[in-house]
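pinned: reference chain
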Amino acid sequence: QVQLVESGGGLVQAGGSLRLSCKASGSIFRINGWAWYRQAPGKERELVAGLYVGGDTYYADSVKGRFTISSDNSKNTLYFQMNSLNYEDTAMYYCAASRSGIGVPDYWGQGTQVTVSS
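pinned: its C-alpha cells
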C-alpha cells in the first residue's frame, strides 16, 4: 500500500502562484509513475501532469509552460509548482501514484483545493 497526503492548496489571485506538495509513504518502491490530477465542479477528473521514475514528464496542453511537476526522492515528496494561475485552474487537485505508469493510478491522495479569484 501507498499513502499520499497533499498540501499547499488555497486561495490565490489570478496571475499568482502556488506550490502543491504530496508526501508519499508505504511501498513506494512499487511506483513507476506519479501524477497530478484535478477535478473542477461539474467536470470529470483530468490528468494535468505526470512524472515517470526515469524522469520523463507529461503535461496537459492547458498547463504546459505554466506548471512544473518535480520530486524530492530524499523526502518522498512530489511537488507541483503552478504559476500564472487563472480562473480555469480552480479545482480540487489530487496526487496519484501508479505501478504501471501515470494514466491508471493505483493510489490517490485526499485532494487539496485550489481556488483562483479573478
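why pinned: DSSP finds no helices and eleven strands in the chain. The longest strand covers residues 18-26.
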